[in-house]
Amino acid sequence: MSITLRNVRKDYDAQTEVLKDISVKVETGEFFVIVGPSGCGKSTLLRMIAGLTPITAGEVSIDDKVVNDLAPKARKLTMVFQNYALFPFMNVWDNVAFGLKARKMDQADIKQRVDEALKMVNLTELAKRKPRELSGGQRQRVALARAVASDAKICLMDEPLSNLDAQLRIKMRQEIYALQRKLGLTLIYVTHDQVEAMTMADHIMVLNDKHVQQIGTPSEIYQNPANDFVAKFFGTPQINILNAKRSQTDNHVLDVDSDLEIALDEEVPAENVKIGIRPDDMKVEAAESVEANATVKNIEFLGDETIIYATLNSGEDIHVVVPGQVNYRIFQPIKVTADSNLMFFDADGNRMNLSKEAYVHA
Amino acid sequence: MLKSPAQSTPTSPLSVEKTKNKIADQEAKFTLNAKDKYFAWAFLGPSLLILGVFIFYPMVKTLYLSLFLTNTVGKTTVFVGLSNYINLLTSADYLSSLGVTLFYVFAVTIITIALGLVLANLASKRLPGIGLFRTLFSATMGVSVSVAAIFWLFIFNPSTGFLSLASTFLHLPQIPWLTDPTAAMWAVIITTVWMNLGFTFLILLGAMSSVPTTLYEAANIEGASSRFQFFHITIPSISPTLFFVSIITLIESFKSFGLIDLMTKGGPTNATNMLVYRIYKDAFYSGNFAQASAESIILTIIIALFTLLQFKVLEKRVNY
Amino acid sequence: MMKKFTAFLKTYALPIFAIFALVLGLAFVHGSRDASSAKAGRIPVVFWHEMGGPAEVQLDKMVDDFNKSQNKYEVIPQYQGVYDEAVQKIIQSHGTSASPAVFQSFDISTAQMMHSKYTTPVQKFIDEDNYDTSNISSVARSFYSNKGKQLAMPFNTSQPVLYYNASLFKKYGVTPPSKSPSYSEVTRAAEQLYKKSHHKVKGMTMEIYGWLLEEALANAHTSLINNGDGHTGNPTKINLNNPTTKKFLTWIRTNIKSGDFVNYGSGASAETNEIAAFLAGKLGIFVQSSAYIGQLTTGNKNKLGISYFPHPDGVKANGVGIGGAALWISNDKPAKTQRGAWEFIKFTQTAKNQAAWQKATGYLALNKNSQKTKTLQDLYKKIPAAKVPGEQLASAKPNNTNSGILMEGMQLTRELEQTAMETVYNGGNINSALNTADKAMNANLKTTNKADGR
């Protein structure tokens, strides 16, 4: 079952615009992640698909049928809430059976479905427990089992892992992914965590500031971000964005400062350009003060790699990831260079496709 | 300095046991010296005095009176043991009072809770102008018993009352609200429910608004009708509050006095002669203190049973 | 820290306790202040009464007049709420400094007061003063006396009378009841009024009130209890299920069946409702205390008619007993104070004071000479019907059946009478309702006698 949004808009009132002109198609059986910082309207978008929040303008279709005016229950989907929305007074089994009972399904059918769903999420043993007697992860599984037991082929998840600790989050991530694949669900998953988006999604929609920033596969989004926001949102540590100016002397050259310049094959098309360099695409070497273009500010050793925090002579802060362990002192002058995977953005942050591979030198 | 047991960290279950014993020993040896006793009495004295004068003495005196006959000036004369109780519990009159009271109490409780639920459920919807209805529904909370009684006496007045005029206008049969035994009982029930409703409504509305909205959203998505949601989400979610309000209403109804006194004086044909009103009449109208005392003890036992039930059930139900 | 706290306690524990005790003490002391507020040199005479509204205003005036008329005593009136509750207050406070020297207690508490032995019978002072009681209504006096001895002096006194809306009867061309009507006469008048008004006016009502039932027995010369309604000896047997009670209830039943009767129930609200209906012209006849005459004449556009309490057919009217309350003297006060109380009682009985009392309150003037006063003559000129209750009172010759029922536990007895009346009004069997009442009343009487060791 596919879901199509056409020019969807949401205003809470005349002054408060929440979402603008959202269009996307989610294909059948796809794991689709909506990601964005908090307050970007991603949960609202999900609730609009579910039918819990009315749409101001535009169209939501499920399998090419417009469902704008359809009640939630008529949309044949399930939803997993951030707080799981478990009924505290019912045991696990009854929680899973709730929707089936509400739809007045046959008793035997209910039993079979609930038992299967609980088995699938490994909760058979805990069927008689009340939610308060379960750990966070177990509660999460009950919520999943509820989605599983329902026959609906569309599942919406609203930040389902944000109440779990880091270890459990990784485990549940895998379980949800496996479940989605096994059941062939069309899954729309809302999160603010770029790692969840990267690791699970077939396609990602990046939302910010009422607008869709980019829709694409994880690798497209990482390697070809549509703008500096998307570039900054994905990847840990964050991408370095350096402000540069077209050189006065050579219009093929971008100057970050006098000690860091980038030569392009083509003419620099704008006066001001932002340069994005992922931390692991930079190189660092110890240098004499004369040669150096940066100073070490801090060093974090992570075991397999080291993050070097440095200040460029221009005053801009950068961070560089280098493999293994390095021996730099704080305040030691260094020379930073990069020669591949550079991204260029105009003053508004939009991606500039500058054709030739660039070179950075001191 | 002696190392306190709490500071030593036990390393094995055995040492935990030992520590416990140590504390027990210390407690056993703990005695008050003379000075401490002085302070203990200084602090306990006033409250003991008040409790003694206003609670314990009347309680014991009531129990004592209930075992005697009292003469015209209320003095005990003949010891009769439990015969006051036996007389009461075998008297058709008293048993009818008991039955009337139970009917009233349960009718008031059930109707109050049912109406309170309906109104709270309506008012918990997010609709324009709902604030006005919330205020209206809870308005009877500030109404005193006497005002309520007078207000409803006006409505029930057989010649000039609103209900009488309305039924004349609509050509319906006149109901003799306060003179027919069955109708009088319902008149008192209606008035009591009307008075209770404001409080019950507010408490239930509060409980309903603390139910997480995601529960209803989840149910909406799963296809539950609003009826199904009311009975399978709202009711179980507010069940501790519901039980609490029911018991409070129940016990308060047992103690209903003002309304009865102002509206029916226990009549007609004792149809509204509740236990509390009976006690008042027997003691302060008829001067039969012995019998009134026995009735008080019986009523105390009945209310205590309901209170006990409340605690027992609340223990089990509050934490779902 | 702990030390400081202990020191604090040492310093303040006792003072705190002392203040607490003082507050408690003051609360108790407060009550006795009124008695000591009498002017210097006068003996305070605390007077408890249960008169509210216009009656209280008139009573306070009477007290004030008494205090001004002499300089030996000062009567201090204190309102004590309704009759039923005041009885218990009087009895329970007896022998304490808070008790009254003279108090007003209502008709049916007479036996209780007598048996309590808490009062000095006024006969003692009548004898001492050779006070002439012949001018005071004999049927009122006999209510508060036992075996020729006056226990208390009647004060506010009323009798039940039959009120009818004379204008309505004229309008529909129905002959009103005669001055001393029989049951069938009242039925005839009520039925005709109901029919000729095309059911717009209800014929009659009779409040569910034990007093009215007892008066029906009195008027037919029938005892409710043995030993001359308690006047010749301690009662041991109650007999409500007698032919007279049955006649009375059958009479009402007849009217209920014809549809001309309206039931307003019992208690104060019943009285309010019947008077409201009467004044609104929706009710033709009702039987009620003569004390309501004030309410029925002020603001009534219709002409008020008053007849005597009805009597059964073929039975000569015996005259009804009284209702209201009497003034009693407590025996827990010094002789001087008791004397002051008696002086005040005598003052309340003068022709002038009784006339003013009747005019202001509707209660009947007890002193025969009151009728000749200008106050009452003027009143009768204005409202001729107001004369009838006084005539009914004067016409009654006291005997055991119309001098009240001298038995303890009359409040409960009345309750049971009323329950029986309610049962009958609501269609229950007359015989079984009366038997039920008799059973309960006799059981209660037996317990009372046992408790009193009789």
UniProtKB/TrEMBL annotation, chain A:
Pfam family, one: ABC_tran
Transmembrane segments: none
Name under which the protein is recorded: Glycerol-3-phosphate-transporting ATPase
Record-level GO cellular component terms: ATP-binding cassette (ABC) transporter complex, substrate-binding subunit-containing
Signal sequence, renumbered to the chain: none
InterPro entries: AAA+_ATPase (IPR003593), ABC_transporter-like_ATP-bd (IPR003439), ABC_transporter-like_CS (IPR017871), ABC_transpr_MalK/UgpC-like (IPR047641), Mo/tungstate-bd_C_term_dom (IPR008995), NA-bd_OB-fold (IPR012340), P-loop_NTPase (IPR027417), Transp-assoc_OB_typ2 (IPR013611)
Record has Methyltransferase as a keyword: no
Keyword Translocase among record annotations: yes
GO molecular function, one term: ATP hydrolysis activity
From TrEMBL, chain B:
Entry's Gene Ontology cellular component terms: plasma membrane
Domain ABC transmembrane type-1: from-to ranges: 98-310
Taxonomic source organism: Lentilactobacillus sunkii DSM 19904
Entries under Gene3D superfamilies matching the protein: MetI-like (1.10.3720.10)
Membrane topology type: Multi-pass membrane protein
Stated family: Belongs to the binding-protein-dependent transport system permease family.
Subcellular location: Cell membrane
Taxonomic path: Bacteria, Bacillati, Bacillota, Bacilli, Lactobacillales
Sequence ranges of Polar residues compositional bias: 1-14
Top-level taxon: Bacteria
Disordered, as annotated region: 1-20
Gene Ontology process terms (BP): transmembrane transport
Membrane spanning residue stretches: 38-57, 64-86, 98-120, 132-155, 183-207, 228-251, 296-314
Record has DNA-binding as a keyword: no
Official protein name in the record: ABC transporter
Keywords: Cell membrane, Membrane, Transmembrane, Transmembrane helix, Transport
TrEMBL record, chain C:
Entry-linked Gene3D superfamilies: Periplasmic binding protein-like II (3.40.190.10)
Family: Belongs to the bacterial solute-binding protein 1 family.
Protein name: Family 1 extracellular solute-binding protein
Subcellular location: Cell envelope
Top-rank taxon: Bacteria
Keyword presence, Cytoplasm: no
PROSITE patterns cross-referenced by the UniProt entry: SBP_BACTERIAL_1
GO cellular component: cell envelope
Example GO biological process: transmembrane transport
Keywords: Periplasm, Signal, Transport
Keyword Lipoprotein: no
